Amino acid sequence: MQATTVTAADGVNLAVQEWGNPHGPEILFIHGFNQAHLSWLRQVKDPQLAAEFRMITFDLRGHGSSDKPLENERYAHQNWGDDIAAIMRATSLRRPVLVGWSYGGNVICDYVRSFGSEGLAGINFVAGATKADPAFFGSGRTLFPDMSSEDLATNIASTGKFIHACFERQPDQQDFETMLAFNMVVPPRVRAALMARPANRGDVLEHIRCPVLVTHGDEDRILLVALGKFTAGAVPGAKLSLYQGIGHAPFWEDAPRFNRELMEFVRLANK
After folding, report:
1. Most CB within 10 Å of its CB: which of 197, 213, 221, 264?
2. What is the pLDDT of the chain when averaged over all its residues?
């Protein structure tokens, strides 16, 4: 793994990591709300993916090892798409597949709104947050208000419950502790800024003109499987892959299947 820092258009420093085959087809992974690039370890450390693909991960602004400005305006719509564009330029990504988990789906829509989809080989929405409709919200989202609490005990307790709500197949204790650690790196004010930002990006979906794979677990308690079906129906020609008995994190809960389907999708998208 090679680590670097990319400076966004507004001066925020983003922590970026490169994995795999430097000459292979490109994949840019975008993690979700409150997470970090470590969410993708079961992909970037997969021997088959690493042998074939050039994989880029990064920590969203406000997350992980990236800068964490506290001003709400630093989390405005335009900045997210600009961040993706800055990373693509800095790492010389020519035609990547974007893989966006949860809030990462929102970020992809921000990018498409500003830059279009012509420069992308494809998009994989993984339980992607594409439309802010309460009909699509699962029970796990009721934890969000306490996750922005300045009371540390309340914050930790609700964040731990949120992590468990993300999984139908629960992580082991060591993985849970790692996840709790990188979740707690995100300041409460950053969490509040993200939660205040509308995720209504559904109008962008119909304008996507690259191949799209929609991945969703049917036991998702954060964003219901109905949202995955909506996204797949809104994007012309999109393929929907549903995971039975899987929660909000198919790439972690059933990594072998996810990695196999991602490999097949990236290959087809680059033909």
Report:
1. 213
2. 96
Write the DSSP string, 14-58. EEEEEEE-TTSPEEEEE--TT--GGGGHHHHT-HHHHHH-EEEEE
pLDDT-derived band at 196, boundaries 50, 70, 90: confident
- Ranking 9-23, 112-126, 188-202, 203-217 by mean pLDDT, the lowest is 188-202
- pLDDT digits over 71-97, tens only? 999 999 899 999 999 999 999 999 999
pTM of the model: 0.97
Taking the domains of the chain in order of start, what are their residue ranges? 2-137+198-269
- The side-by-side arrangement of strands in the sheet containing 26-30 is 2-7, 13-20, 54-58, 26-30, 97-101, 122-126, 212-217, 239-243
Alpha carbon of residue 117 to chain centroid? 17
Q: 157 phi and psi, to 5 degrees?
A: -60, -45
The CA-CA-CA angle for residues 185, 28, 80, to 5°, reads: 60
Find the DSSP H helices in the chain: 41-44, 47-52, 77-90, 103-115, 144-147, 152-165, 173-184, 188-196, 202-205, 225-234, 250-253, 255-269
- Count of positions (residues) in the chain: 271
Whole-number Cα distances in Å, 80 to 2, 15, 73, 109, 134? 23, 14, 11, 9, 23
> If you classify domain 2-137+198-269 with CATH, what class do you get?
alpha beta
